[in-house]
Structures are given as structure tokens and as C-alpha cells.
Design a protein that fits this description.
alpha/beta, Rossmann fold, globular
Length: about 210
Amino acid sequence: MHSVQEDFPDLSPKPVVLGIGGSPRENGNTDVLLRHILRGAEKRGLPSEMILLRDYRFQPCIGCERCRADWTCTGLHDDMNPLYPKIVRAGGLVMVSPVHNYNVTAWIKAFIDRLYCFYDFTDDRPRGWTSRLALQGRKAVIAAVCEQASKDDLGFTLEAMHRPLEALGYEIVGELAVFAIFERGMIRDDAQALARATKLGADLASSLVP
């Protein structure tokens, strides 16, 4: 069994951007949007890595609470475990999800829930908490792709990413919602949306390395 200090001896983030894609559809609109955001960060000189959650086999959090004692997820051993060092290392995080039933996809929700291991809790009731990723200058941008044209149909998608990341200690420096997009790769024809995505990535990079 390893402690978080052994697994991640240096918790201070680096000027690196990690992109998390939550779509089940290969080479779909979410993938294209994520690539453009990361391209914007790369144009500002920051290295990036793209993680497509559909390519990973991991469970949702099972609430075993072992991470409270171990400071890392030891209750499950799956493809989420090698992602933790990447999350710790990257000062910049990009998270993009299509809208599924007014919310993020199950992949994004499970990923967020597995970040529970970064919290510390007090013993009082209700329990106080802090995040070991906080106060380190971490920044994030979030984006969503919605099939419908109405903002109402976006539902909680952006909020479902914004609030958990903010609680973990990320400053959300920008967000983007793209509407009326569904057919695979259709977003490639939306030059304005892609330009906004590239700028979003550039803004993220600038916030990490002023």
C-alpha cells in the first residue's frame, strides 16, 4: 500500500495541460473540440496530453472510504490509477463532454467521482474538508457540445464540471458551449466554434504562464 506522498512526492503542478474527453463516440464533435482547445494551449508553448475516457476501463467510486486513510484510491485497481499522476502533474485541465440527458456523460461523472481521493476530511459533523490539489495555481477550462439549439437543453452539463473542479482547487478560467451540433464531426464546419475553442486553450496557457 502506498501513501499519496510516495506515489506523488511532488504535488506542485507543472505548466502542462491535460485534456479529458468524455464522449463515447470516436472522432466525434467532442473529440474535435478538445483537440482544438489543446492546440490553442500548444500554440502558446505548453505541452498537452489528451485522455479519451472511453479508451479506459474504470469503475465509478464505490464509497469504500479507504482513500481517507491511504490518501489515494486503493479500493479499486483499474485504468483510473495510472491517470492520477497525470492529474497531479498537470497545472492545466481541460474537460469536454457532450450533453447526455441534460448532464455530463457517465464517463465524465465517474471520472469526477474518482477524484474524491484528493480530499481530506475532519472528524467533526458535518465533516469539514480540504483538497490536496488546492492553493497550487491550478487552472481549468470546460466545454460542452449540445445537439439542441436552446440553452435550456444544455441542462447542468457545464455546472456539473465547474463546481467539482472548483471545489478541488481549480480556477475555471473559461467555458464554452456549442449548440445545434450532433452528426459526427459536424463541428468541423463551425469555424467560429473552433476558433473560440482554440482561444480558450490559449487563454488557459496564458493563465498558467503569464
